Automatic annotation (TrEMBL):
Native source species: Pedobacter psychrotolerans
Known function: Cell wall formation. Catalyzes the addition of glutamate to the nucleotide precursor UDP-N-acetylmuramoyl-L-alanine (UMA).
Any Pfam family matching the protein: Mur_ligase_C
Pathway: Cell wall biogenesis; peptidoglycan biosynthesis
Residues annotated as binding ATP: G141, S142, N143, G144, K145, S146, T147
Protein known as: UDP-N-acetylmuramoylalanine--D-glutamate ligase
Signal sequence region: none
Listed EC numbers: 6.3.2.9
Lineage: Bacteria, Pseudomonadati, Bacteroidota, Sphingobacteriia, Sphingobacteriales
Mur ligase central domain segment(s): 139-319
Keywords: ATP-binding, Cell cycle, Cell division, Cell shape, Cell wall biogenesis/degradation, Cytoplasm, Ligase, Nucleotide-binding, Peptidoglycan synthesis
Family listed: Belongs to the MurCDEF family.
Domain Mur ligase C-terminal, residue spans: 342-455
Length: 478
């Protein structure tokens, strides 16, 4: 069993893709014996605490940061012991098992000590799956996870299935397992979650794409990040399903390397694929069984527009067909779905200028998709915490569509270096209000001001939601 990155990560993960976690004693843990320590008191941590308590464990929660009032109140109501702004080793290292927040890296000192002494360290998703027999539809990828997860959930719910939504979106998976009784779960799964999942098996696994992201957590090695993403197929059998993009170069190489044993359904907008999904002219065809195809017009049947959303819709459509949902239900759901906040969200039109909030674009590939979908000249607001970004893939789109770049971040040097030959104007700003006002003055009637940062937000904002909300507030003040 491999838990943490090292130089042999790629080879070892490949060898262990279909092996179970043997660290710790998960079988005794299922009986509600022992001490479970939860590191991180956010949505996933408090949910895990709730489930662990319900299953009879001695539970302790520790957060090295400040615990938000809502989560502190939840722990107090449950009479669960916790600490804030510290990790007391004497209260942690005696755990029979540790459930950690995905945001805590394997290099954190407390994690290193736990691993060194042989303590099992797992994710909330891994822990919660032990206590539910529900079917899991698990969606991962560098981009499009949230949109595809929400669309899939929307389709299943409209079809009358008893379904929950969790993972990197919505309420904690563990809390729902403790309190609800769903037959299906749609789970948005990040690479950080996958790193701490071992016995978990996805009944339906979806891999949307693999592009460089979070490389700072993976020794700046793409092969490590790819191996992490491919854990989505670990433990799958021939009775399970794996859905992936046949147009994504890294995904194709990964599939060839890791050789999934599940039923495979690819999707493509460049070539005909059966079984799977493909685009022909303006029509999507989805075929998972002979003579049971679903066709949809990308112009009249899909609420989500843009090339990236054709991919997302194909992935969700394959899931729906695998679950044998009615074509009419799938079409209706695809047509009335509303996208998530902060993802190509139209904020306002002021003086003929469209303002678009794509704050959730925290990597280069997301910004590529956003620019690719633009039909007007763009004033692009970008910048933040650079995660080892390679901006080369944006250069052609920036040359053809972007008239000015407004940098929003503390350190904008790499953006200047990347695009100084491609756009005439690059301006530095240090607040959402300043960036919005300058972008407004640089744009003219018929242009679009697009916030699509390609970077994390933590230098100036709490998170991408905070960044997007501040941008929207600034737009309304214009």
């Amino acid at each position: 069993m491999i838990k943490y990155l090292d130089t042999n990560y790629l080879i070892l993960i490949k060898m262990n893709t279909n092996q179970n976690n043997t660290s710790g004693n998960p079988q005794s843990a299922m009986a509600g014996q022992g001490r479970v320590v939860i590191l991180g008191a956010g949505e996933s941590g408090v949910g895990a605490a709730k489930l662990a308590q319900a299953k009879g464990f001695d539970v302790f929660v520790s957060d090295f940061g400040v615990i938000a009032d809502q989560y502190k109140s939840a722990l107090e109501k449950l009479n669960i012991a916790f600490e804030s702004e510290k990790h007391t080793e004497g209260l942690i290292l005696n755990a029979s098992e540790v459930i950690k927040s995905p945001g805590i890296p394997s290099t954190a000192p407390i994690i290193k000590k736990l691993v060194a002494q042989g303590t099992s360290v797992i994710s909330e998703i891994e822990f919660a799956k032990r206590y539910t027999s529900a079917k899991t539809i698990c969606i991962t990828g560098s981009n499009g996870k949230s949109t595809t997860s929400l669309l899939t959930y929307h389709i299943l719910k409209n079809a009358g299935l008893n379904v929950g939504l969790a993972g990197n979106i919505g309420h904690s998976f563990a809390a729902q397992v403790a309190e609800e009784n769903y037959d299906y779960y749609v789970l948005e799964i990040s690479s950080f979650m996958l790193d701490d999942m071992f016995e978990f098996k996805a009944d339906i696994a979806v891999l949307l794409n693999i592009t460089p992201d979070h490389l700072d957590r993976y020794e700046y090695k793409m092969e490590n990040y790819v191996a992490s993403k491919m854990r989505i197929i670990q433990n799958q059998t021939a009775d399970d399903v794996f859905i992936h993009c046949a147009d994504d170069e890294e995904s194709i190489k990964a599939v060839q390397l890791f050789k999934p044993v599940a039923q495979v359904f690819p999707f493509s907008i460049t070539k005909k694929i059966e079984p799977g999904a493909y685009l022909d002219a303006q029509t999507i065809t989805i075929l998972t069984e002979p003579n049971k195809e679903l066709t949809m017009s990308i112009l009249s049947d899909l609420a989500l527009q843009g090339k990236h959303n054709i991919y997302n819709s194909m992935a969700s459509g394959i899931v729906a067909k695998v679950l044998e949902l009615r074509n009419e239900t799938i079409r209706e759901s695809m047509g009335n779905f509303k996208n998530i906040e902060h993802r190509l969200e139209h904020v306002a039109k002021i003086s003929g200028i469209d303002f678009i909030n794509d704050s959730k674009a925290t990597n280069v590939n997301s910004t590529w998709y956003a620019l690719e979908s633009m039909t007007a000249d763009v004033v692009l607001i970008m910048g933040g915490v650079d995660k080892g970004n390679d901006y080369n893939m944006l250069k052609d789109l920036v040359k053809s569509k972007v008239k000015a770049i407004v940098c929003l971040g503390k350190d904008n040097k790499r953006i200047h270096d990347a695009f100084e030959d491609d756009v005439e104007i690059i301006v530095n700003t240090f607040s959402a209000d300043e960036a919005t006002q300058i972008a407004f003055h640089l744009a003219k009637r018929g242009d679009a001001v697009l916030l699509s940062p390609a970077c994390a937000s933590f230098d100036l904002f709490k998170n991408y939601e905070d960044r997007g909300n501040q941008f929207k507030a600034a737009v309304k003040e214009l």
